[in-house]
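Worked Example 4.2. Read the sequence first, then its structure tokens.
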Amino acid sequence: MKIQHWYDQTTGTWTYLVADLEAAKALVIDPVWDYDPVSGISDTRSVDQVLGYAEEHALSIEFVLETHAHADHLSAAGYLRERTGARIGIGEGIRQVQAVFNQILNLASDEPCGQGFDRLLRDGDRLLLGSLEIEVIHTPGHTPDSMTYLIGDVAFIGDTLFMPDFGTARCDFPGGDAAVLYDSIQRIFQLPEETRLLLCHDYPPAGSPQPRMMCTVAEARKHNIHIKDGTSREDFTAMRKQRDSQLKLPKLIYPSLQVNVLGGCSPEPEDNGVAYLKLPFNRTLASILQDN
């Protein structure tokens, strides 16, 4: 197994390519589609690095796996599918995420929830990539569709945990639940201590060392500032709710979710041939949810 990684400094996001070199097959986890919210223009410079690596090493990209529908960056899954024929997989909880944001943004959709993806994954599913087996573990709490992908002694855990000095994911998005996140983290903590946890994000402060992408289960259980061995469910839930109440929404939440709930595809053009992204005017996400 070969793992290659890229870091997008703008959004603090790690993208991974996992390959079975003997079979010349690969999968990509959490690819980034670069987007400028001021101009509304996107480009593919980040994901083109992934494609360039695959082409250089004669790898066929078979799957694009999303750890969840991201709210802080646009997914390039659709672009990868278009270029390579790869199948896009995400947790089946995406149906709930799609339904909520279709309602919040008043998006007209005659398609059943789940559209945009080739495979809706469930806890316990297994995918094969050459000789590599990918075990799917449902780890909700941050979002209802959050998944961990376990390949050998490596677990790609999305936003469930961050580096020990940064803590854990927020739980105040629709469908999030701090108590559920606690239970999901306990599942991760039950993996062998030497298991490497590969993260979706790192946000090092200015002047600090380079962003990090990995810690072990043992390190997380001992040093995570939000949850470690001995942290109770009640204490974690109270901490997470108090902390989340002070957080601002991610800058790209509205454009990200309109693209990401469709598998990283842009909205359909309107009758003038232009595709648009919607933004609520003078309304908070919480107030819209209350009304609905």
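Now turn to a second chain, presented in exactly the same format:
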Amino acid sequence: MQQPAETASVEFERLRGRLFGLAYRMLGSRAEAEDIVQETYLRWHQADASRIDSVDAWLVTSATRLAIDRLRRLETERRAYTGPWLPEPIVSDTPPPDQQLDLAEDLSMAFLTLLERLAPDERAAFLLHDVFDVGYGAIARALDRSEAACRQVVHRARERVRGERKRFDVSGSAKASLLRQFRTAIETRDEQRLLELFAPDATWTADSGGRVSASPQPLVGIDRIIKLVLMIRDKYWATGRVLELATVNGEPGILIRDGDRLTATLSIATDGGRIHAVYAVVNPDKLA
């Protein structure tokens, strides 16, 4: 028996932010995540309420399975992608949809980029357990595996992600302060200050999708990065171009605008004193 529409909507809205957060971390695309949430919503309205023991588990399981299927279909497309692939940025003046879960760090570009190394099932199991605090029993039901198998999947995924992840205990205000210094150094073309702001082995990853000019491979090393920044400053700086601080994927970032048009988002990984990585999204399809 289908549940009353009003009751179903209230129950669903209670978990909408959580479902979006899961789907976005799985797919790295706001549009794709919203599609998953909408499809979950339609299935929820058609579900037999008498056969559902836990609303939360049913919705999370449905969204997880839909996201896994969607990610598998997207894998071929992403393998053919021109240059590095980065998630579609979430740009806002307000916290992300699931900010109440205190997960901003696990929404960052640095973290989501590492998730790309995981297979769809691994990604789902790892996110459900380590980010959303879902128990192994529920994960086993979502993935249609045994609990023991899910424990192994999560362990392997954690080793792959956490082992390569630089974790810095940096406050949002400290990151914002560093970004303001970076912005000033670019605007004034202060090469010496730029050299002071980057770690020697820093990386710069730009996602253009082949739509605009960008390095086809991540740049490694401070000298190459400073050369790139100054080249962009000298060659492409336009009248009306502004760099402004904003919230990008739940943490301080920089938006580059030409008038009303958003041309890039910059996110960083930092220890609070120097920049260790820059993630630049310049693909106009991801900035619309």
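Notes for the reader: The mean pLDDT is 89. Residues 55-79 form the longest helix (25 residues).
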